[in-house]
Amino acid sequence: MEEVWQGKKEHQHAPGVGMGNGASERWNAAIGNLSEMGSTLDSLQKLLLQKAVYVDEEAFAQASANSVQARNAVALERRVKTLERELDAAITASACARTEKRQAEAAQRAAEARTQEVLKELENTTKIFELHIEELRTKHEEIAKKDGEIKVLQAIIQTLSKGTAGNSAQKKIYTT
Fold first, then answer.
1. How far apart are CA 10 and CA 44, in angstroms?
2. Do 36 and 28 contact (CB within 8 A), yes or no?
């Protein structure tokens, strides 16, 4: 690794050549960071080589299969949780729909009851109207009957008044 970094150092510009003073400082800081990263990687590589566990192919295959199964189990668990959330949402929606259905049925029953009340009121009003019409017919017949009686009485009065007027003329003739 050190050789790679050294190779890059060969191509770098000399500090201050073709760059401003601030750019040169940033370039030097970046090179320093890269060097530190290289040494950190070397240390990490040495550490991994010391702690590495070497297993035979059968153990590695079993470990790989276990790893795949663990990943599948995690994926399936996520899917189960997603399905559970969907099921909960469906149950909630179903409960809301049942509540709305009950409310609609109650509103329908109330409307039907109100319709029955209005029909009963209309029937009662119709009966009362029929009674009033019958009463008016009766009164009209009584008035027609009384009117006929009045005409008869008027005719009698006229006849009598003509007869009285003729009698009074006769009396006048006799008295004179």
1. 26
2. no
Residue 66, in any domain of the structure: no
- Residues 140 and 41: their CA atoms lie apart, in Å, by 122
132 and 102 share one domain = yes
**Whether residue 32 is found in the same domain as residue 100:** no
Range of the domain at 107: 73-149
In this structure, the answer to whether residues 79 and 41 fall within a common structural domain is: no
> pLDDT, tens digit, for every residue of 46-77?
877 777 666 678 877 888 899 899 999 999 99
Residue 4: which residues within 8 A CB-CB, separation 6 or more? Answer: 38
Output the DSSP codes for 25-73: HHHHHHHHHHHHHHHHHHHHHHHHHHH-----HHHHHHHHHHHHHHHHH
Alpha-carbon distance 59 to 50, whole Å? 20
Same domain (yes/no): 77, 32: no
3-state SS, one letter per residue, for 110-162: HHHHHHHHHHHHHHHHHHHHHHHHHHHHHHHHHHHHHHHHHHHHHHHHHHHHH
Q: pLDDT at residue 6 above 50?
A: no
